[in-house]
Amino acid sequence: DYCMSGEEQVALAEAKFKVLGDKAAAVGAYEKALKETGNLDPLIALAKNVMNVIADSAFAKKVLEKAETKISRAVEYGKLAAAAAEHVLDKEYAAAIFNKAAEKLSSVPDLLSLAGEVTKTLGDPQKAKALYQRALEGATDFASAKTLIDSAKQAGDAAFMQAALKKAGDLASATGEYIELAEGLAGVGDKSGAAALLDKAEEAVAGLDEMQKLVAAVEAHLADDAERLGRVKAKLEKRQANHARYMEFQQLEKDAVSVKQFLALADRVRLELEDPFYAAENATDFIAFKDLVVTAAQLKHRELGVSKARAYLAAREAALAADAHATVYDTAKLAEASFAATQDAAEASRLLEAARTQAGDHFALTHIGRLYASMGNSAKADELYAAAAAACPDGDACIQFIDRLKGFALPAEVLKKWYAECGAHLSKSADKLRWAEGIADALNDKAWATEVYAQLAGQFSGADAARFEFSRRSHADLNFYGAVRRH
Description:
Elements: H1 6-18, H2 23-36, H3 40-53, H4 57-68, H5 74-86, H6 91-104, H7 108-122, H8 125-138, H9 142-155, H10 158-171, H11 175-187, H12 191-204, H13 208-221, H14 226-241, H15 243-255, H16 259-273, H17 276-279, H18 286-297, H19 302-322, H20 328-342, H21 345-358, H22 362-374, H23 378-391, H24 395-406, H25 412-424, H26 429-441, H27 446-456, H28 463-475
Helix pairs in contact: 1-2, 3-4, 4-5, 5-6, 5-7, 6-7, 7-8, 7-9, 8-10, 9-10, 10-11, 11-12, 11-13, 12-13, 13-14, 18-19, 18-20, 19-20, 20-21, 20-22, 21-22, 22-23, 23-25, 24-25, 24-26, 26-27, 26-28
């Protein structure tokens, strides 16, 4: 009767079982301890104690189910699943914990961490592979792609390593990054992938040091490509012979602001250094390319200027068609440049529809919709936004979708419309719950969130029901803490 804390109730439970042999009384004390225990580590310790003292796996699982409602991070899910497998000896429950975590988590670091824990705890490479694939698809910058490569090294998965290196190559921007990744692809036997990245490295070279590194990489990994090796060596020799002049030209290139200045600089490079490679570099830069076609279209002789701009655009479209690594965003950029230069909505729409056939996720579809909106075609924009909403596979994707739309400064009622449409495509209760959380977190609409939580009530049971209640309290129940909080 004098035991107050969870620790005291645990000590009492041990005494009742070990001294009196009364398991029922011990369980009663453990029940009181469970009520007094609220954080992950103490709950895991409690479950472990239950197994060590009374070996009651059902009650130990009940303890861990409470812990499920207290966690949200990958490392916590991993710790809980490990406890289920190691202390409660229930690998099926551990797998269920990982499945729930996989539904809830979406960031690249979380998914990679979870994949590592799945491998360590369950020894299930297929489950881990699915998580690695999601992380691969979710990487949006070079830094996150690098974490994929590090994880692939730790996992010892050659196929995933190859995919991670290619993904990083899509997101890289500097010569050194491209060379590093090309060497990685060459190391796993992907010679064609390495060649594609060294192409990009060659385009991005900004100085003598980078050119030397590029030549070394080609010699090490593509020595049998005589044409390439001869080309980069010729560039290196030219740069070494004219290093000071190149530095001058690079500064002039940075200072140039008009197409006329760029063209004049290119002529100087060609004439003074006989270097057609350097003189053509700006053709591969989208911003410079867009400036070029727009400026050409605005020449005093309008018809001639637009004709010149269309020629540039046609050449870029042909180059993209021949580039196996061109993406949906490259085609969308071309459409954007086309409309900016010519104001030809039909031609820009043709290019955007071509981009749409390449779009594989809600990110790309939303981007194309935004470009239609910027052209004044609200009907096509809505069509693309609807397609993007339908392409969202889970609650996290719906939140990503609405966060993107918020960046377009759309009215609140329009955001609500698209978020509702996205939620209507979800079928899993866990996804609907995550979507409901987004109503409060992303849209800050607590009234609507309260309505949705009321509609979802009754769809959850067991640990899922406890998690639902915790979510509702923190996202929709405005009076959970009372009218006035006491501190």
